[in-house]
User: Fold this.
Amino acid sequence: MATVTLEKLVKRYGNLEVVHGIDLAIRDREFIALVGPSGCGKSTTLRMIAGLEDVSAGTIRIGGDIVNDLPPRSRNISMVFQSYALYPHMTVAENMGFSLKIAKRPADEIERRVAEAAAILHLEPLLHRRPSQLSGGQRQRVAMGRAIVRHPEVFLFDEPLSNLDAKLRGEMRTEIKKLHAKVQSTVVYVTHDQVEAMTLADRIVIMRDGHIEQVGTPDEVFSRPATRFVASFIGSPPMNLVDGVIDAGFVVFANGDRLPVPEAFRGSVTAGEKVVFGLRPDDLYPTGHGLHSGEATAVHETALRVAITEPLGNETLVFLEFAGREWVSRMLNPRPLVIGEPVRASFDLARAHLFSAETGRAIQRKGV
Amino acid sequence: MRKLRVSAPVLLLMPAILVIAAVVVVPLILSFYSSFTSFRLTKPETLFVFIGLRNYVTVLSDPVFWTAFGRTVLLLTIALNVEMLLGLGLAMMVDRATRGQRMLRTMMMFPMMFSPILVGFQFKFLFNDNVGLVNNALQSLGLTDQAIPWLIEGDLAFFAILVAEVWSSTSVFAILILAGLLAMPREPIEAARVDGCTPWQTFRYVTWPFVMPFAYIAMTIRSLDVARAYDIVKIMTDGGPARRTELIWTLVGRIAYSDARMGLANAMAYFSILLSILFTVYFYRKLAAARTQIAAEW
Assistant:
C-alpha cells in the first residue's frame, strides 16, 4: 500500500510562499502527473514528498504514515532527476546497486537485483561503463534503473525527459509507460510538457502559482477544463479563448461580433455577465473539413476570412479572423487556401466552453 | 662568402634566452658542478678542486643530514594531513554559509597574505616562554603555573613550528577544496540522500570522491612548499635548540653560509630536490587517477 496524501501542504522560503496549502490524494499504484508552467510549485511539491525540502505547514503521508520529519532515506521512495544525477565515479552497475550497498544487502542479492533492473531497461551491455561514457538517453535509463532496484513504494520523477532531444523523449516516454506497467508502483511525475502528462498519467494535477487548478483524468482535463488556465494550458494548439458579454442569448465580443450562447449554458448565464468563450481548434473548422462534421450537433456557421495557414500535411491549421482577433481552427483533409480567402466556418457550439471572466472558473453546464 | 644568418624567431627570442641563461641555466650548471668540488666560499680557488662524488658520500653518510631529512618528511606528513583535515572542515563550513560567503572566503585567505618571515616572528612571540600569549593564556586559565619552554624544548619547538606552518597554509587546502565543493553539482548529493545515505555516507561516497582531485592539487603545491620550508623555522628556532628542529634547508643554509662549504651544501640540496620531485610525481599520479575517476572536464 503506497498512497500519498498531501494535506494543506505549504512551502515558504522566508516570507515568500510558493505552495499555498494544496490537498491531493494519490491512490496506490496510480500514475500522477504534476504539470504547470515553470515556477508553479510542482517541483517544490515533489521535493517535499521526497524529503529534500522541508515542509512549512501541512502534512505529507506515504502509505498512511506522516513523513514530514523523516529524512528521504526513511520514506521508501526513489527519485529520478532531470539532470540524471548519476555518481560520476561509479560504473553503471555500481550506480544502480549503490542504494542496496548502503542498505548493507548481501553482494549476491545486489548483483541479482541490478541484473533484473538492467534487463528491464536493456542496460546489460553498459553495466561496466562510467556515466561519462554514456549518451543522454542511456544515462536517463541508468537513473531509472537506480530507482527501480530499490523496489520503492513511490517513484518520483522530476522532469526526467527535459534534457533529451525530441525523438529520444518520445521513446523514453514509451519506456516509462511500460516500466510503470511492470513495476506497479505509485508514480508522481513532474513535467511542464502536457503531452507527457496526457500520455503517461492516470490523473493529471494542473498547478499554477502554488495552487492546484484541477485534478482529473487526461480526458477530464481536456474536455472539461475547470478553469480558463487549464483550458489554455492543455491542448495544442491551445483553445481559443475570447472575452465577451452575454446579451439576449448571445455572447457579444468587443467588436460587436456575436455567437449564440451554447444550449448547455442557457440558464446558467445572465444578461450582462462577463464571460470568456472557449473553443478548441478541433471544434472550429472550415465547413466540411472538421473532426465531427459527420455528426453535426449544434453547429453555427458563418463566413470568415483566412488570415494565415500552417499546413502540416495531414491537416492544416487555419487562422480565421473573427471577433477582432485570429482564431485557430483545424482543417482535416486540407485543400489549398489563400490568405484573405473567404470560407464558411463551423463553430461546434455543443463543444464550446464558457468561463466566468471574473473568477476564471468554468460556468456550470445544464444537467452536469 | 656565406654569412651566418640567424632566423628571425631565434633572433627575436634571443634577449629572453640570454636572460634565462644568465639567471637560471648558468647558476644551475655552476651549482651542480660545484657539488662535485670542495668549493668553500672563503677559498675561491677551491671551486676548481674536483673531488668527484665525495660530497655526496659525505652527505649520505651524515646522521645529521638524515635526521634533518627525516624531520622534514615528518613535518611534511603531519602538516599536510592536518592542513587537509582543517582545510576540508573550513571549506565545508564556508560552503554551508548562506550569507557572507564572499567575505568568509576573503577572510580565509588572510594568513596567505602575510610573509612567512612575519608569521615566524608572530609565532615566535606567541610561543615565547616569558612574554608569549600562549603561556600567558594557559597560566591565566589556571592550566599551568609554569612557563612552558615552547621554543626551547625540542618536541615542543617542533610542535610550535607545525602550528605556525598549519596556520599560515591551511587556507591553500580550504580554498582549493571550496572551489571543488562550489563546482560540484547538487543533484548527486540529493540522489544519495534519496538512495539512503546518512550525511556521513553522502560525504564519504559522493562528495569526497568529487573533491579529491582538488585536495591532490593542494597536496602537490603544499608538499613542495613544506619540503623547502626555511623562513618560518629560521625565524622561530633557527634549527635549534641543538639542531632539534633542523630541517633540510636550514641545514643547507647553515653549511653553505655559516660554514661556507658551498660544494657540500649544493650536494645536499641536489639530493633533497629528489624528495620534492618524488612527492610531485606521486601526487600528480593520484590527481590524474582521481580526475579520470570523476571524469572531470578540466
User: Anything to note?
Assistant: The radius of gyration of chain A is 24 Å.
